[in-house]
Amino acid sequence: MNRQASRYRWVVFSAVLWSYFLVVSQRTAPGLVTGQLMKQFALSATTMGLMSSLQFFAYAGLQIPVGLLSDRFGPNRFLILGTFLNGLGTVLYSIAPNSAVLLGSRFLVGVGDATIFVNFVAILNAWFLPREFVRLLGVIGLGGGLGSLMATVPFSMWISDVGWRVPFLTVGAFLMASSVLLVELLVRRPRRLFPAEAGMTTGNTHKPKRIGVLQTVRRLLTTREAWATFMCHFGVVGTYVGFVGSWGVPYSMHVFGLPLGSASALMMFGLFGAMVGGPLATWIASKVGANKRVYTVVYVLVFLSWAVWFLSGSAPSLVLVTCLLVVIGLGNGASALTFAIVRESFSSEVVGVASGFANTGGFLSAVLLPSIFGLILDTFPQASATIGYHDGLLIPAAFSLIGLVGVLLVRERKTA
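Above: the chain's sequence. Below: its structure in token form.
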């Protein structure tokens, strides 16, 4: 039996999706305890921005190496290792006695996170037919949205009940257990069920031609689509993840005077948009047969949303911000189309590293945004923090404009 025609592929997909759900929750959950950590460990806004940036710096810096290794050795072992490291970092974060351990643990979480999405896409490519690929990217986006959703009101209520340490410790333990489960489901059982395909890392029936690392990187860096997809992800993912994961909740508490639970609930509107955006955008793209056309519309809406938010001043309407968060979230979910464009633009021999390069763009902006935002806040006294939060919104607006240029650079290809 071929793995792409087996029912077992849905077991594999579900197991990896569960791990991805937990991993994504830990991208934004620390934003819920920003205020508590600043008080408990006497941290400045700049240091808190650095903590978020360290996690995403590790993620962004490892995307190309992870893509190269995935193309060369297959995705399974790296996804398993990354899940374990993410869990270990989360556990260390939960028991951190000082700011140094906090910073180190978030870096470790970023290292683990760096292996997840690129290898999930590679596993999707190995186990599913091309016609299933684009729509399942939307399901991955939905799973990520649910993970982020867990890191809002449910997680904040949990933190309010038992403190911030126990929730992070529990999720970290689940992630480490999931890595053990993945060894069985991704490695051991497929060897028994598909002995004729043992050792295969792609869905192809022939062994891909090996390409040297330098040649691969050179080809990537001189390809228009590589830079276009890098810019796409830079503008739509990092702006959302960097803001919601670090300053979204504090912004809501300072600007609107909301308590922690209500500020977390406000972020949920963006997450609802992200959950809908992935399946909706990929479904429309598969029907239209043109990924760029759909992505361009999404990007125009995202850029206009950040621009309107900034132009609305330091005291915007709560209703307006809620609506803008939904649209921005839709754009983040629709970012799955970046990898649909990657797959149709690159050969199977380099699709892993091309996906990693595109993903680097998203999390490079997630590195830059919290730190720059924190620097802007630190230039204002506490009494003028609302003005600082307003000025900080210029950063995601500018970043999303870069992404809009990127999507315009993509060459349209019919996918139907």
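Residues 270 and 329 are 4 Å apart (CA to CA).
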